[in-house]
UniProtKB/TrEMBL annotation:
It comes from Dictyobacter aurantiacus. This is Aldose 1-epimerase. GO terms for biological process: carbohydrate metabolic process. Coiled coil: none annotated. One of its GO terms (molecular function) is carbohydrate binding.
Length: 274
């Protein structure tokens, strides 16, 4: 539909060569990633549902907490955290990059009682989208956190069984009942996964080490059945840890007082030659 065509009025467009990246900075949403004619990230053209779109950041928690409770503080946190519903501000912007930030406020403090600054830098390169997330703990106590990314990759329902994947041996698209029983499962993330998208190209989802350290240990694979509107996507979600991970001290990140933690995710897309 025309109302979801790229770029929309609220989208900032970053570019490098034949690569275009769209960002909706107010909600920290990478809304578009295109290399040549290949639109890599899905846009919910049927419903316009912004929650089924692009690559949102899930912070401070991925997925659901048991009964919605953050046990450390006895507070309630929504599914996928509050980062995608809070107003972020732009710190820097040029033709190929944008840096945005969310800091704590009264609303966040009621759910997640820490002083923090979350900073997202999104950079368009030749065939790449590089996302650097810096989580700064401005509190005087350890700040638990378990964020993740939720990219929706565009693929037609009829083509999902023809996807091939390098790096996720437990996922075989040929054996999945995509129309009726799509996957929703966590897998070990070996820091780099390559997905061969039928008719489109090769997509690599990779975490780059920071000071020889990796932060994203899990990849959740998920899609919707064909009865759901806007189902022509598959999500390969690189996350710190699986559902309820914020409540598992050994699995989450624990940022020391007055310090920060940085992670880098890169998407690389190479279209097939037509």
């Amino acid at each position: 539909m025309t109302f979801t065509q790229f770029p929309m009025e609220r989208e900032v467009v970053l570019s490098a060569g034949d690569t275009k990246v769209g960002v909706m900075p107010d909600i920290c949403l990478v809304s578009h990633f295109q290399v040549g004619n290949w639109q890599v990230l899905y846009r919910a053209s049927e419903t316009g549902n912004i929650k089924r779109w692009g690559m949102p950041l899930m912070i401070p928690n991925f997925s659901r907490l048991k009964q919605g409770i953050f046990q450390e503080k006895g507070t309630m946190l929504p599914i996928h955290g509050f980062g995608r519903t809070m107003p972020w501000k732009v710190l820097q912007q040029d033709a190929a990059s944008i840096t945005i930030q969310l800091t704590n406020n009264e609303q966040t403090y009621a759910q997640y009682p820490y002083e923090f600054a979350f900073t997202s830098q999104i950079v368009a390169g030749e065939g790449t989208l590089t996302y650097t997330l810096t989580m700064e703990n401005r509190s005087n106590e350890v700040m638990p956190i378990a964020p993740g990314f939720h990219p929706y990759f565009a693929v037609a329902q009829k083509d999902k069984t023809d996807i091939t994947i390098e790096g996720l041996p437990n996922i075989d698209p040929r054996t999945i009942q995509w129309a009726t029983q799509p996957p929703d499962q966590p897998n070990s993330f070996p820091h780099s996964v390559t997905v061969h998208m039928p008719h489109e190209g090769d997509l690599t989802i990779a975490e780059q080490p920071v000071e020889e350290r990796y932060s994203l240990s899990t990849m959740q694979v998920w899609s919707e059945p064909s009865t759901a509107p806007d189902h022509d996507f598959v999500c390969f979600e690189p996350v710190v840890t699986s559902e309820d991970g914020l409540n598992r001290p050994a699995d989450r990140l624990n940022i020391a007082p007055r310090s920060s933690h940085r992670l880098i995710l890169q998407l690389s897309a190479r279209p097939y030659e037509s």
